[in-house]
Specification:
14 strands, 3 domains, Helix Hairpins, about 400 residues, 5-stranded mixed beta sheet, Heat Shock Protein 90, EC 2.7.13.3, Rossmann fold, coiled coil, about 50% helix, alpha/beta
């Protein structure tokens, strides 16, 4: 017999326990063991034993509430996922549950066996994904610790040599600074990865749950709406993973500049056409090639990544029904590219950090992203021996300029 999933229900109403038990009994092919406690303090003691795979927590627990219990449990790093049970469905409760650390929340009185089974299954899988991220975090911290110890040993050896003490100290300080930057980079990675993965995963979970309720042909439009939401969420996840993989390949030196000869105008038109798929309602890309010469000798894949990233950024940070102006030009052996949007612009205080990995300007907090796109573009431009610059005014838009030297095939 396969391992059973152990569930702890924390609810001070025995009738709710009986109802929950009956719902679990109705789950097809069930393999669950349900335990119950109605005491806030007893629940914390049981959770500390780490015997359960998931916890169902009622919002109301006498003098306490379920959010307090979840926060207190997570404070002690109890890793099993929590699902909040509430008597009402509203956005405020949803947001409170997520902030407290709950994987999901369900409305009592409307829970079906399939909905409960799906929520339990998805919450457990999500918790496993977060555990992997935390493990990677611990491994990175250990690497930093080991590297710091190695640097300490290096300092002692340097002091025993005849080299200049000042030069040795400066070198060590530089190395320690790099380690500090690595540690900060690691922290930003863990924070952003956890947040950016959680948002589309939550979208997929809610849409899948709703699709299951639409069973007639009259509900086809509603089903397709949620199918489109799932596709969009998966696309976002793919984009995030591609950004992380691109950074990894660049760091490992696995990105090469392999130029070929091609028609720049036709190529840019094709990229602009592909970028139509990411535009918001009513947005438009105006492309124009400004010179008679159209022959370029560049790495097509790197150039495509640069152009698509700049065009999708221009769309992302602009409102609906805005235009994006995109031009190319070949002049004096140099490919010149300009992408101009009518978006939110970049705050003056954030401009010095624009190309820093994982950095996001203060006015884009409500727009999804990893903060890696422009860093990747800048590094691709560097690999191709080019230069990149920009102009931006807050609430008026941003223009990016890229100059790439013609290469020899």
């Amino acid at each position: 017999m396969p391992d059973r999933t152990r569930i702890l229900l924390v609810d001070d109403d025995e009738d709710d326990f009986i109802i929950t038990r009956d719902i679990i009994d109705d789950i097809p092919g069930r393999n669950y063991v349900l335990d119950w406690t109605g005491s806030f303090n007893e629940a914390l003691d049981i959770i500390a034993e780490r015997k359960h795979d998931i916890y169902l927590v009622d919002y109301r627990l006498g003098a306490h509430d379920g959010l307090e219990l979840i926060k207190e449990a997570l404070k002690h790093s109890y890793a099993a996922p929590f699902i909040l049970l509430t008597g009402q469905s509203d956005r405020e409760t949803d947001e409170k549950a997520m902030r407290a650390g709950a994987m999901d929340y369900l409305v009592k009185g409307t829970i079906s066996p399939n909905e409960l089974e799906r929520s339990i299954r998805y919450s457990i899988e999500h918790a496993k994904s977060l555990a992997v991220i935390q493990r990677l975090n611990s491994e990175l911290e250990q690497r930093v610790k080991e590297r710091t110890q190695e640097l300490g040993t290096a300092i002692k050896k340097l002091e025993q040599t005849n080299r200049s003490l000042y030069e040795a100290e400066q070198e060590v300080r530089k190395a320690l600074q790099k380690e500090k930057e690595l540690h900060e980079l690691k922290s930003r990675f863990v924070t952003i990865a956890s947040h950016e993965f959680r948002t589309p995963l939550s979208t997929v979970l809610s849409s899948v749950s709703l699709i299951a309720k639409y069973k007639t042909t009259e509900d086809d439009d509603k089903r397709m709406k949620h199918v489109d939401r799932i596709k969009s969420a998966v696309s976002n996840l793919t984009g995030i993973l591609n950004d992380f993989l691109s950074i990894s390949r660049i760091e490992e030196g696995k990105i090469y500049n392999v130029p070929t000869t091609f028609d720049l105008k036709a190529f840019a038109e094709q990229v602009a056409d592909e970028a139509q798929g990411v535009l918001k309602l009513g947005q438009k890309i105006n492309y124009r090639h400004q010179s008679s010469d159209t022959t370029a000798v560049l790495d097509k894949q790197l150039l495509k990544n640069i152009l698509f990233n700049l065009l999708s950024n221009a769309s992302k940070y602009s409102g609906e029904h805005k235009e994006v102006n995109f031009t190319t030009e070949i002049k004096d052996g140099t490919i010149k590219i300009k992408v101009q949007d009518q978006g939110i612009g970049i705050p003056e205080a954030d401009k010095t950090h624009l190309f820093t990995p994982f950095f996001r300007a203060q006015n884009v907090t409500n727009i999804q992203g990893t903060g890696l796109g422009l860093n990747i573009v800048k590094r691709y431009v560097d690999i191709m021996g080019g230069e990149m610059d920009y102009q931006s005014e807050l609430d008026e838009g941003t223009t990016f300029f890229v100059s790439l030297p013609q290469a020899q095939e």
